Recover the amino acids of this structure.
């Protein structure tokens, strides 16, 4: 047997030759390090099998195989390579390779020897005219099986054991059996043989094969000599090798078929666009996703250019990217803007050079994945990050809501959205800001209260929620609303943002995720407004306290010190002279000090919290205050009136008003107290206060010179402010002073 081993690298060729020489000691092994030398040996020597590497400089193994097949169509040819792949194997089988093996370790040399032995045996069986006709009869089922490839394995293997006995010396008494991986096939009317011959083999897939021929009891006698002929022994070995070779071929083809099936499964079902173009930019292949996107069949697409499919500017950009791959021979990953049915979409394209069998670039293979939605999310995130500074610059909750509605519309494309803020006083979610589309679809947005809406549920749960069908939700607020799907984004303790759509299932988890980021920004901005408002109120309160402290210090340092100095001076004169008229002045000074202490106490107490307010009878409080004052011969007239307030504060208010009236109007004036719509009035019959002085009388320290402290009406103003009352100073019917007190906000007052 003559074998030819071809490999351009002697270091790899020598071990192969050495091993095959050990396995086939009677064989003549020829070697060649170039395809040219190998062709010459095939033509000049009786080569029975060629073993060739794939990677060779002048011509690769598959190209060499095609050359051999031009003159020797069935000469056994084994491709034995260390750089293999499914693509190379598929190409080799298409070119007519007898077998294909990869150099994966020492054990592969055993497989190589087995494949060579099987291939040569089959080749000789089919082409050596010296082989007996009986051998042809025995091997014909195997040859038919390899040619037909009808996958009827069981039928064909049974045919092998049926035909084999007819090739023996005594066919009428012969039987045969074949065991393949534990499954046994036997000839017809099989009985265990008395005389038998058995051979064994194993496939590359690990299946063990056992083939047995024999004669039944009494079929042959001792005089027959050797029961089995040498040719029959060789025939048995040849048949088993052929079966093994066929099973190996089936295994390879099955692997290739499975690989092809998986590849087609990927190509037909992936959402990525896949395509192959030649060096001229013409389409050679496109997968099902490409066909679906552009409504083209592969038959219509093949041979076309990008300019035949895309707008000019798109086609030019795509072609420029393809040229980069062809010119550099390197893969690229690039974003491409593609117009699909009038919409511009963004694709991330991986483009790699497609190589032919010789390793030359024959085109560009591309895989493009749509990332339009991802790019839009990135844009939204960037815009939201920029928006936070604008939200944080808002000074009121209403301003935050207005900016939030605009951001939801312009950044998140939530055209129908509204922000409802929690009103603690009324325990409700009141609409503060909303888009025009909300009004166009449902009119004025509603106010939500406890337990009557999805919005309230989300506000309490604090979980962002996308509702696919609001009509199917038990907490739907208005079953007749044209809104079908909603997105609810809680804003912490401050409220909720609601987006709606007339379409079912218009919001997904991505909308929830990106919406939660906007909601977080809004909650932060609302918290900032809340904190700053509390700080401003605290600052105002501290400023008021500081002002009162300053006023108190002023009174102590000035108003109280003056009468105290008078008293001290007169006491000193009385002690020196004994003049009792000094005692009267001392007494008046002490009385004045007592009045000032009373005024300061009232000034310090004017900030009573609103929670201490309760219904108070104005007329009753006024009479009580009148009785404790020295009103000389003045008179008081009251009409029934009730307001909500603090009785102690109201008493101080009347004391200062009455003291002011008596001090300015004289001993015989009349003071009247009565109801007004939303409040009450206090007026007198004195001389009144000139119009040009009315704006100043409530200022601290202002006095008209009747020995007042200058803080009486300041106290009146502050008590009114603590009750949210507006104070108006005008003339009474008699020309005296008239003070009118009305609630700044709507409160209940009665005339009784």
């Amino acid at each position: 047997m003559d074998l030819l081993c071809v490999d351009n690298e002697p270091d790899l060729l020598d071990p192969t030759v050495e091993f095959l020489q050990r396995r086939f000691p009677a064989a003549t092994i020829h070697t060649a390090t170039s395809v040219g030398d190998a062709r010459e040996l095939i033509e000049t020597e009786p080569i029975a099998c060629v073993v060739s590497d794939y990677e060779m400089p002048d011509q690769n193994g598959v190209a060499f195989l095609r050359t051999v097949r031009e003159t020797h169509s069935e000469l056994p040819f084994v491709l034995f390579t260390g750089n293999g792949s499914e693509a190379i194997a598929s190409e080799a089988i298409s070119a007519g390779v007898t077998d294909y093996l990869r150099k994966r370790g020492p054990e592969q040399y055993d497989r190589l020897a087995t494949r060579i032995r099987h291939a040569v045996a089959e080749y000789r069986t089919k082409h050596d005219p010296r082989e007996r006709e009986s051998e042809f009869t025995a091997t014909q089922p195997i040859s038919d099986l390899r040619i037909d490839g009808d996958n009827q394995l069981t039928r064909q293997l049974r045919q092998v054991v049926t035909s084999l006995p007819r090739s023996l010396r005594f066919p009428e008494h012969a039987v045969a059996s074949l065991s393949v991986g534990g499954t046994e096939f036997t000839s017809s009317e099989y009985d265990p043989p008395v005389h038998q011959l058995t051979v064994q083999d194993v496939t590359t897939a690990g299946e063990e094969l056992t083939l047995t021929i024999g004669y039944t009891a009494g079929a042959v006698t001792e005089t027959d000599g050797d029961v089995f002929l040498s040719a029959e022994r060789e025939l048995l070995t040849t048949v088993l090798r052929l079966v093994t070779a066929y099973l190996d071929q089936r295994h390879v083809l099955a692997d290739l078929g499975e690989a092809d099936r998986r590849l087609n499964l990927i190509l037909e079902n992936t959402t990525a666009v896949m395509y192959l173009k030649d060096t001229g930019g013409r389409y050679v292949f496109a997968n099902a996703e490409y066909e679906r996107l552009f409504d083209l069949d592969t038959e219509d697409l093949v041979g076309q250019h990008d300019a035949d499919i895309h707008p000019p500017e798109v086609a030019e950009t795509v072609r420029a990217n393809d040229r980069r791959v062809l010119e550099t021979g390197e893969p690229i990953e690039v974003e491409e803007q593609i117009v699909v049915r009038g919409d511009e979409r963004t694709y991330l394209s991986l483009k790699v050079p497609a190589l032919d069998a010789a390793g030359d670039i024959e085109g560009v293979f591309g895989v493009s994945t749509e990332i339009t939605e991802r790019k839009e999310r990135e844009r939204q995130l960037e815009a939201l990050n920029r928006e936070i500074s604008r939200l944080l610059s808002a000074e009121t909750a209403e301003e935050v809501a207005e900016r939030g509605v605009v951001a939801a519309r312009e950044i998140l494309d939530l055209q129908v959205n509204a922000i409802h803020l929690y009103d603690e006083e009324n325990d409700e979610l009141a609409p503060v800001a909303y888009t025009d589309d909300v009004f166009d679809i449902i009119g004025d947005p509603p106010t939500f209260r406890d337990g009557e809406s999805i919005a309230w549920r989300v506000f309490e749960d604090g979980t962002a929620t996308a509702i696919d069908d609001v009509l199917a939700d038990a907490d739907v607020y208005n079953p007749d609303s044209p809104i079908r799907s909603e997105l609810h984004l809680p804003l912490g303790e401050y409220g909720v943002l609601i987006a709606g759509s007339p379409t079912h299932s218009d919001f997904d988890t991505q909308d929830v995720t990106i919406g939660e980021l906007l909601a977080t920004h809004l909650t932060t901005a609302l918290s900032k407004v809340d904190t700053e408002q509390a700080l401003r109120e605290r600052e105002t309160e501290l400023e008021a306290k500081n002002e009162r402290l300053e006023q108190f210090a002023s009174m102590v340092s000035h108003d109280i010190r003056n009468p105290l100095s008078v008293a001290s001076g007169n006491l000193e004169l009385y002690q020196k002279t004994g003049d009792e008229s000094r005692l009267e002045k001392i007494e008046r000074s002490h009385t004045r000090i007592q009045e000032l202490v009373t005024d300061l106490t009232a000034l310090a107490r004017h900030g009573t919290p609103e929670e201490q307010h309760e219904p108070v009878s104005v007329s009753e409080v006024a009479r009580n205050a009148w009785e404790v004052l020295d009103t000389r011969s003045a008179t008081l007239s009251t009409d029934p009136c009730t307001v909500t307030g603090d009785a102690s504060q109201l008493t101080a208010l009347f004391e200062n008003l009455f003291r002011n009236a008596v001090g300015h109007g004289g001993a015989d004036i009349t003071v009247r107290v009565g109801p007004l719509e939303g409040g009450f009035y206090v007026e007198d019959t004195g001389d009144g206060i000139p119009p040009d002085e009315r704006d100043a009388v409530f200022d601290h320290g202002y006095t008209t010179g009747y020995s007042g402290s200058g803080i009486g009406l300041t106290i009146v103003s502050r008590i009114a402010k603590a009750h949210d009352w507006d104070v108006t100073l005008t003339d009474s019917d008699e020309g005296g002073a008239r003070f009118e007190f009305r609630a700044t906000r709507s409160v209940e007052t009665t005339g009784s």
The longest strand covers residues 343-355. The chain has a mean pLDDT of 84. The chain has five domains: 2-126, 131-251, 270-370, 372-604, 605-743.
